[in-house]
Design a protein that fits this description.
Chain lengths: 450, 450
C-alpha cells in the first residue's frame, strides 16, 4: 500500500506538551507494545506496518516538523515537505507528484491518504489496505472510509451513503451539522468523514493537472507559494460523482484535546508524580525531572513540560487555546533530527542549554555574530571543529567559542553538552551557516539548524 | 526590648516551597510595605522594629537555618545556634545565656520569647513590648500573651485566667482539648496560648541553674547534647505559680498549612501564571521560570518550585506530610548566606548547578576527591583562587577544576556561575575545606559550606 500521512496541526490544544515545533502527534504519552511509550506518529507507523509490512509510507508535512519525524522514525519513511501551508489539496497533489517523480510509483497504483493522528485499533489499517485495493482495482474514482458514528457529533463532517451495505456508493456530504441534523443523518445511515481518501495515483494527478496546471514535482514545488488555499474535500470530493465509502466500525478517536487525549493513556500517571487516594478521574503527565503531588483533584489533567504547566478541569481544558496564545513563550524543549535540546536557564545576558546529540549526528557548521558560547561536555565522546580545526572531546572538556568563531560538534557516542550562550542580544536568528571545511574526515552525516 | 525568636520547624507542610533547609518562615510569598514580597521572618523583623526600633533581636535556631537567616536579614540580628535539637527549654536557656554572656544583657532586664512565624498585625508586637515591660518591672515571674480565641480549636493549648481583665493572673493551663472542652473553656474566658513568654533574664537563668546546672554560655553549649528534650511549658510554665497573662485581640494566624498560608497572600497569583475566569478560591505560587495555566480549579492551591509541584484541594493540602516524606528528594534550590544555588540538571554522571554569589561574598576554599568541576561565569565580576593562585573572572570565563584542585570564588559584583560537576559519585559529603592560602588580599569575608 502507498500511504500518504498528512501531518499538520499547531501545538496549542495540548500545551504544554505540544508547542510551536512539537505538534500533538509527536508527544510520547501513549502506551504501545510491551509497555513502551509511543507517540501518535510512532503508533500509527507501527500499526501501518502491522497491516502491511511492505507499506510505502510518505509523510506530507511542513518544514518545522521534519526534525521531529526524523527523530522519531529516522529514515524509515519518506518526507514530502510543503514549502508553505496551502491546505490539503495542494499538499496531496505535491505528495502525489513526489510519489510519481521521486519514488517511481505508477499512475495506476492505489494511494491512500490519511491523517497522521487517528487513535484507532489495528483493524482501521486493515480497512485502509482494503480501500487502497478498491482504488487500485478502479471500483470508484474515489474511495472513502466512513466511521460508524457513536453519537450525534457537531464536530465532524458526515457522509451520506446510498445504502447500508459495507461498501456503498456515496450520495452526498454534509459539513459539521448541528446536533439535531446530525441525529437525522445518523438515523438515515450517515457515517462520519474520517478524512481518509483513496484513489489511483493517476486520478489525482489528473486533478492536479486540471486545477494547478501540474507538470512535475519540481515545478509544483517551485510554484507552491502561488497556489490558493483549498481543501481536498472542496476541490475534489464534493465535485466527484463516482465515490464509494467503506464502513469502519472499530475504535476511532480524535485525541485533539487533553480531555480526549488522557482517555488514551494506559495509566493515570506518566512521569514523576503521585495522585493521592482522594484524586479521581485525574491524569498526570510530567516531563519535568521534579515530582508532582496531586491531592484531592477531581476530573483534572495536570501536564508539565519545560515549556510550562497546565492544571485544568478536563472539560475546561478544551478552551485552552486563547490562553496559550497570550502566553509569551520561548520553546524550552525540542526534539531535533540530531537529538534534542532543553533550555535550563534564562537570564538577561545569558541562556543555558542542554544539548543531547545522538551517536553519528552533528550540528550545522555555524557561527554567531552577537554572542559567545561555551560548551562543557558532561558525557559521551565526540569531535568538535573550531575554525577548521578538529579535536576530540569527552567529559569535562570545555570549548570556548567567541562571537564569529565557526563551530560544530559531531557525536561518536551519545554526547551531552552544557551550552552557555553569553551576550546582550541572544536570538535564534543570529546564526550564520557554512559548509564544513575540515579535510580528511567523514562529513557530518546529518546536519540541521537548531 | 530583648526578644528571642524561636526558629524551628521542618519543611514538609508547605512543600514544595519549603524543604529540609528552607522552613516555612523563609518562604517569600507575603506582601509587605509598598508591595514588596517578604517572608514570615522578614515580616516579623519589620514589625518588631516598627514597635521598637531599638529592639535587640536574637534568633534561636539550628545550624541548618543560619544561611537562610543571614541571607534574609544579614547581620542585623544575633543568631544563637543550638548544637542539636533539645526542645524549647534548653533552647531558651542557651539563648538566655547568649544574651548575658555574649551581649551583656543584665539579669534584671526583661526578655520576650516568641515564635518566629506568627502572622499578626503590628499591635501584636506592641503587646509584646508591653509584656517585656511587665516582666522587667517584676509584675509576675512569667508573663504570657493570651490570644482571644475565634473558634473552639483543638490545635492550641488554652490559658485559663482568673479574671476577664486585660491583664490577669493565670489560674491554669489546658493542653489541646477536644472541641467540646474547648467550647467550655472559651465560655469561661480562656485564651489560646500563643507560645509567647516574658521574664526577667535572671529568672530564666535561675531555672537553668536549677534544672541544667548552668554556669555560662560556653559550658551550656558544650554540654547541650547531653540534655534531655523538654519543653519550656513543661519545665517552667506549668510549675510556676506567679504568672500573668495579657490579652491580645488582634489578628493572629498560624500559617502552618497551604490552606491557611494562602489566606495571607495579597494576590491569588505570585510568580508566572494565569488563573482563568473559571477558577475560584484558588491560589497559585510559582517560583519556576515557566508559566502555569490553571483552568476550572475550585478551592485549590498550586505551588511550584525547583523541588517539585503541588496541585491540591485546599482542605487536602493539610495532609501533605506523609506524601512528601515518601518522595525521594534532592534539595534543588537553597538560599545561602553568600547567595543561592539552583540545581538545573541531574544526570547519572553529572550535575549542573547555577550559583549566584552576592557582592562581597565567597565560598569556602575547598576541593573534591571524586569529581571534576567546571565553572562558566555567565555574569558579574569576581576572583577565583585555584591551588593558591588568584585570577580575575568575568562573563564567558571558564575555570576547570579537576578532582583534588583547591578552589574558591569571591564576588566583586553579583556573580552568576554555571557549575558542571562531573564524576561517578557526586555527593555533598565529598568536600575538603582548607584555610585560604593567597597572600596579599582581603580574606573572603563570609565563607560557608554549600
Amino acid at each position: 500500500m502507498n500511504i500518504i500521512l498528512l501531518s499538520g496541526g499547531s501545538g496549542q490544544r495540548l500545551w504544554p506538551l505540544s508547542n510551536d515545533i512539537r505538534s500533538k502527534q509527536f508527544i510520547r504519552i501513549l502506551t504501545g507494545e510491551e509497555g513502551r511509550v509511543e507517540s501518535m506518529l510512532t503508533r500509527v507507523y507501527r500499526q501501518i506496518l502491522a497491516a502491511d509490512r511492505d507499506a510505502n509510507v510518505t509523510i506530507a508535512t511542513s518544514k518545522k516538523q521534519v526534525s521531529s519525524i526524523r527523530n522519531q522514525l529516522g529514515d524509515k519513511v519518506n518526507v514530502c515537505v510543503e514549502p508553505c501551508r496551502r491546505d490539503t489539496f495542494p499538499a496531496i497533489c505535491l505528495a502525489a507528484a513526489y510519489l510519481r517523480d521521486l519514488q517511481g510509483v505508477g499512475e495506476e497504483e492505489g494511494v491512500v491518504v490519511c491523517p497522521v493522528d487517528p487513535y484507532v485499533e489495528d483493524s482501521y489499517f486493515e480497512a485502509l489496505k482494503e480501500l487502497g485495493g478498491m482504488a487500485e482495482r478502479g471500483e470508484a474514482n474515489l474511495s472513502l472510509l466512513g466511521i460508524e458514528p457513536t453519537y450525534a457529533s457537531e464536530k465532524y463532517g458526515y457522509i451520506l451513503p446510498v445504502s447500508g451495505e459495507r461498501v456503498s456508493r456515496v450520495d452526498t456530504f454534509r459539513e459539521k451539522p448541528d446536533a439535531a441534523a446530525a441525529e437525522k443523518y445518523i438515523a438515515g445511515g450517515a457515517l462520519w468523514n474520517g478524512g481518509v481518501f483513496a484513489f489511483r495515483l493517476g486520478y489525482l494527478l489528473g486533478k492536479a493537472r486540471e486545477l494547478l496546471s501540474f507538470q512535475n514535482y519540481g515545478e509544483l514545488r517551485a510554484r507552491y507559494e502561488s497556489f490558493r488555499k483549498i481543501s481536498f474535500d472542496y476541490a475534489v470530493a464534493e465535485r466527484e460523482k463516482d465515490i464509494r465509502v467503506l464502513r469502519y466500525r472499530g475504535q476511532w478517536k480524535d485525541l485533539g484535546t487533553w480531555n480526549t487525549f488522557t482517555e488514551a493513556m494506559a495509566e493515570p500517571v506518566l512521569g514523576r508524580g503521585i495522585l493521592n487516594e482522594t484524586c479521581s478521574n485525574t491524569h498526570l503527565v510530567n516531563e519535568l525531572n521534579i515530582p508532582i503531588l496531586c491531592m484531592g483533584c477531581k476530573d483534572m489533567v495536570v501536564a508539565a513540560s519545560s515549556d510550562g504547566i497546565l492544571v485544568s478541569d478536563k472539560v475546561q481544558s478544551s478552551y485552552i487555546k486563547p490562553f496559550v496564545e497570550q502566553m509569551e513563550q520561548q520553546v524550552m524543549y525540542a526534539e531535533k533530527s540530531w537529538g534534542s535540546f532543553t533550555v535550563l536557564d534564562v537570564q538577561e545576558d545569558s541562556l543555558t542549554i542542554k544539548i543531547v546529540l545522538l551517536p553519528g549526528h552533528g550540528l550545522y557548521y555555524h557561527s554567531h555574530e552577537h554572542r559567545d558560547e561555551v560548551w562543557t561536555v558532561t558525557s559521551g565522546r565526540g569531535r568538535v571543529v573550531l575554525d577548521g580545526v578538529e579535536r576530540a572531546v569527552g567529559p569535562g572538556d570545555v570549548v570556548s567559542m567567541p562571537a564569529g568563531c565557526k563551530h560544530t560538534v559531531f557525536a561518536d557516542t551519545e554526547l551531552k553538552i552544557l551550552e552557555a550562550q553569553l551576550g546582550e542580544n541572544i536570538t535564534v536568528e543570529d546564526k550564520q551557516k557554512y559548509p564544513l571545511e575540515v579535510a580528511g574526515r567523514a562529513a557530518l552525516s546529518e546536519q540541521e539548524p537548531r
